[in-house]
From TrEMBL:
This is Pyridoxamine 5'-phosphate oxidase. The lineage of its organism: Bacteria, Pseudomonadati, Verrucomicrobiota, Opitutia, Puniceicoccales. GO terms for molecular function: FMN binding; pyridoxamine phosphate oxidase activity. Residues 34-159 form the Pyridoxamine 5'-phosphate oxidase N-terminal domain. It comes from Pelagicoccus albus. Belongs to the pyridoxamine 5'-phosphate oxidase family. Transmembrane segments: none annotated. Its EC number is 1.4.3.5. Its cofactor is FMN.
Length: 213
């Protein structure tokens, strides 16, 4: 057995208080996201997205956050993928930003909705040519018998569409995670970590509480 019992870091270079955080968790997220960028976290917009299948089995995968504001957190994917099917059946989700370099994590729970086709098209059009073709090539999450099939499909799509003329696939687009709770976690000395937990109230206001580490 690989024993990792001695692998531990002492945290606590910073602290987070109920008084110091922004009353709006999206603004607090903006501050932390900027710090993650300033500290050169690799792909700070990478988040682990959880979904649950019909049998209750949870699944996770990394997706990239492409936009956020008071309405929610937006990522793009294939609507027919495994996650797409699971979200169609159960739109409840949870995402986690693992900013371990900063001794921080942010956990968002909420419900997804599809962004408008216009919003998906705007983002799709901004992607490099190869990525736009890639959306057409991949039947995301389906079994494929070999890599060469994907490469052949890529060449086929390259011949079919010219740069600038790749249409938005009907099966591809964005989801907005409309947040219901957002937790900001920061490592503290002797495992006395800070956990500031925002939950959305009926009237739309955010309640702020501290959770025990
Ligand atoms: C760093 C990183 C970023 C990724 N970004 C995305 C993304 O934005 N959208 C996406 O559909 N898949 C993305 N993927 C691939 C997903 O993790 C996953 O393999 C894919 O979406 C299929 O997931 P599913 O079969 O559970 O639907 C990314 C993977 C990594 C490692």
């Amino acid at each position: 057995m690989a024993d990792l019992g001695e692998l531990r870091e002492e945290y606590g270079h910073d602290s987070l208080t109920e008084e110091s955080v922004d009353p709006n968790p999206i603004e607090q997220f903006r501050v932390w996201f900027q710090e993650a960028m300033d500290r050169k976290v690799t792909e700070p917009n990478a988040m682990s997205l959880s979904t649950v299948d019909e049998s209750g089995q949870p699944w996770q995968r990394i997706v990239l956050l492409k936009a956020y504001d008071n309405k929610g957190f937006v990522f793009y994917t294939n609507y027919d993928s495994r996650k797409g099917k699971q979200l169609a059946n159960n739109p409840k989700t949870c995402v986690l930003f693992p900013w371990i370099l900063l001794e921080r994590q942010v956990i968002v729970t909420g419900t997804v909705e599809r962004v408008s086709t216009a919003e998906s098209l705007k983002y799709f059009s901004s992607r490099p040519f190869g990525s736009r073709l890639g959306a057409w090539v991949s039947n995301q999450s389906k079994v494929v018998s070999s890599r060469s099939i994907l490469l052949a499909k890529f060449e086929e799509m390259k011949a079919k569409f010219k740069d600038g003329e790749v249409p938005l696939p009907s099966f591809w687009g964005g989801y907005r995670i409309v947040p219901e709770t957002i937790e900001f976690w920061m490592g503290g000395k002797s495992r006395i970590h800070d956990r500031i937990y925002y939950s959305k109230q009926q009237d739309g206001a955010w309640k702020i509480e501290r959770l025990s580490p």
